[in-house]
Design goal:
This protein is mainly β and about 70 residues long. The chain has strands at about 10, 20-30, 35-40, 45-50, 55-60. It has a domain at about 10-25 and about 30-60. It is globular and about 40 Å long.
């Protein structure tokens, strides 16, 4: 799994009718974009997150740096 600051992450629900959760990656602690990530979840709290197989990174468009 690879991510950069500003990408979004989604964790799908494990059971039928269970809501997933979504957040924004605010820090990347692993080398080369690897986990763990600090995620600001849609409910406002932040935590250090080690994604499992049910997590998907959604890469956002990032401005190119000169």
């Amino acid at each position: 799994m690879y991510a950069v600051v500003g990408d979004h992450i989604e964790v799908r629900g494990r059971h039928v009718a269970e809501k997933g959760r979504r957040g924004k990656i605010v820090e990347v602690h692993g080398a080369g974009g690897q986990p763990p990530y600090v995620v600001r979840w849609s409910d406002g709290h932040e935590n250090l997150f080690f994604p499992g197989p049910d997590a998907v990174v959604q890469h956002m468009a990032h401005p190119a740096t000169p």
